[in-house]
């Protein structure tokens, strides 16, 4: 049995040790995250192309930085910080020479 299908493709992961269940991710991407009545965070790990920006926005807005998107197209050098209202990931700027 090959486990490659579980590792490939764009996905998100949540570090449960860092997550404080503020549910900001649910507000940013309700199609991906849900805080259940039992107090547990449920989320869809595998991402479709239409979910990329919502996943990046949820990761950016998480106050504990517990959300990690992986395997998004062109994610090299993308920085998941910035204004929450801007859902497009920003490219990291190289350090300035002094």
UniProtKB/TrEMBL annotation:
This is Ferredoxin. Residues 65-98 are annotated as: Disordered. The keyword Endoplasmic reticulum does not apply. It comes from Amycolatopsis cihanbeyliensis. It comes from the Bacteria. Residues 76-98 have a biased composition (Basic and acidic residues). GO terms for molecular function: 3 iron, 4 sulfur cluster binding; metal ion binding. The keyword rRNA processing does not apply. Its cofactor is [3Fe-4S] cluster. Keywords: 3Fe-4S, Electron transport, Iron, Iron-sulfur, Metal-binding, Transport. InterPro entries: Fe-S_cluster_ET. Gene3D superfamilies: 3.30.70.20.
